[in-house]
Amino acid sequence: MCIQRQTKRGSNKAYVYTWPSKKSLSSIKAKVKTITKQGTNNPLSSLLHQINGVLRGWTNYFRHGVSKDSFAYLHQYTWLRVVHWLRRKYRRANWKWLRRHYLANAWVPEQDGEALFDCRSVQVTRYRYRGAAIPSPWVGIEEKAS
After folding, report:
1. What is the DSSP string of 28-94?
2. Is 120 exposed, middle or buried (0-12, 13-18, 19+ CB in 10 A)?
3. Is 55 buried (19+), middle (13-18) or exposed (0-12) by CB count in 10 A?
4. pLDDT above 90 for 27
5. Which of 28, 73, 74, 89 could make an SS bond with 40 (beta carbons 3.0 to 4.6 A apart)?
6. pLDDT per residue over 55-93, tens digit each?
7. What 3-state DSSP class applies to 145?
8. Pair 36, 84: CB distance under 8 Å
9. 3-class DSSP state for residue 129?
10. Which of the two residues, 3 and 127, has the higher pLDDT score?
11. 110 Cβ partners below 8 Å, 6+ apart?
12. Secondary structure of residue 115 in the 3-state scheme
């Protein structure tokens, strides 16, 4: 994670911003690439199931920061990798057939109820104040001592 203090656009106040580093973004891209290079013997639904687990975990980890642009970039990269995988699996099929069979619902690759996870839809919560929501470690000790 990159952490920097920068001035907010439109004001002179400085804030601390965190976002995914290039190293972490390249590592998730490498995972997506290895999953899509495994081969074309399995159906699309099993490929999407593998990719979705990786994407959900990574986006949930980095959702507490300035990550919307990174999520959009990752979604675009993953979509392209899945479409290239489909083009390799069905070499003789034209683009119209592939789009009709696998990209029918708003250009989202899906099969058997398994659709590609949309990284852009992850709600980003920046620097939330937890305050009293953090449990006190002394509550259990006080009750035991009494």
Report:
1. HHHHHHHHHTS-SSS-HHHHHHHHHHHHHHHHHHT-SSS-HHHHHHHHHHHHHHHHHHHHHHTTT--
2. middle
3. buried
4. yes
5. 89
6. 999 999 888 888 888 999 999 999 999 999 999 999 999
7. helix
8. yes
9. coil
10. 3
11. 44, 48, 102, 104, 116
12. strand
Smallest CA-to-CA distance from 118 within 133, 127, 105 is with: 105
Residue in the structure block whose two tokens are 């789009």: 99
Tokens 């099969």 label which residue?
A: 111
Q: Report how far residue 119's alpha carbon sits from residue 72's, in angstroms, rounded to the nearest whole number.
A: 7
Structure tokens at 42: 């399995």
Residue type, 17: Y
CA distance 74 to 59: 10
User: Which of 77, 96, 86 minimizes the C-alpha distance to 42?
Assistant: 86
The token pair that represents 24 in the structure block: 């972490």
Residue pair 115/48 in contact by the 8 Å Cβ criterion: yes
